[in-house]
Write a structure and sequence with these properties.
Blueprint lengths: L4 H25 L15 H8 L16
Length: 68
């Protein structure tokens, strides 16, 4: 459980990305080709800013977030 929205968003996006990668590899292994790529959506601006940085700098209250 988390109390910070940004931490919750990062954790959710991380888990979702792992699932997407797994499904893409599964579909490829069984010979299915997808017409589209998977897309992850996020509406938390602080999370989006952290993810867009080349080297995320956690200089706010978010210092305790582990890198997933």
């Amino acid at each position: 459980m988390t109390r910070l929205t940004t931490k919750a968003e990062l954790l959710s996006l991380s888990i979702a990305a792992i699932e997407i990668i797994w499904w893409q590899r599964f579909f490829k292994a069984v010979g299915l080709s997808l017409e589209r790529d998977f897309t992850l959506l996020c509406d938390n601006m602080q999370t989006i800013q952290l993810l867009r940085q080349d080297t995320p700098k956690l200089d706010t209250k978010l210092r305790h977030i582990d890198v997933y």
